[in-house]
Design brief:
mainly alpha, globular
């Protein structure tokens, strides 16, 4: 337990996740962000994580197959396959989010919002991109996490980690809308997502670092 606590408080990737999740919280406090903006930001985070998962897959593949020659054509085909694998569910999820939570849906009051709130989500998504980049560099590269990863299980890790979190986020969003999206409910909503995010992150890296955590 002491080693786990030391890992949590001394791990820069943990703190970067906390910092990135604070930005939506500030949006709720100071800019009156509603459920739809928050849900869209969290969807965008999934896109960012998918990007890093593709990079990680190549790192594992290269490490486990050092004698295999990788051609440009092979790289392109692999990128397309992985993009479809991750992209199709994400696109379906986005349309679902717009249909359920978008402007004008479920008595949303922010009619001035466009279907895709790029302006509001830009800074939070940049922070999530940096946060997951820090995790990639600190855990995956510096601590050589790629040497311990099973490439055959990697493709499903994204859904295994984020699906439970987004199911919880989805139902929490519905409850928030049901109660009229008061600020306290939106704060709880963000805190629930942050807690799920931290728990999943620690669990993922605790499994890979049994000897050091």
């Amino acid at each position: 337990m002491k080693k786990l606590n030391k890992y949590i408080f001394n791990n820069i990737s943990v703190w970067s996740i906390i910092f990135a999740n604070l930005i939506p919280l500030l949006g709720v406090f100071f800019f009156d962000w509603k459920i739809y903006i928050l849900i869209f930001i969290y969807w965008g985070e999934l896109v960012i994580v998918s990007f890093y998962k593709i990079i990680e897959s190549y790192k594992v593949d290269i490490y486990q197959k050092p004698n295999q020659k990788f051609t440009i054509g092979g790289w392109i085909i692999s990128i397309l396959v992985l993009s479809i694998f991750y992209g199709v569910p994400l696109i379906i999820y986005l349309f679902f989010i717009i249909a359920i939570f978008g402007p004008g849906k479920f008595m949303m009051t922010q009619e001035h919002l466009t279907p895709i709130p790029f302006k509001e989500s830009f800074i939070p998504l940049i922070s999530f991109f940096i946060s997951h980049g820090i995790s990639y560099k600190f855990n995956y590269i510096n601590k050589e996490e790629f040497k311990k990863e099973d490439v055959n299980k990697k493709l499903g890790n994204l859904f295994k980690r984020f699906l439970p979190m987004h199911i919880a986020v989805f139902f929490a969003a519905l409850l928030g809308i049901y109660f009229g999206q008061p600020k306290y409910a939106l704060i709880i909503f963000v805190l629930i997502k942050t807690a799920f995010d931290l728990k999943a992150h620690i669990k993922e890296h605790r499994f890979l670092y049994k000897t050091s955590v």
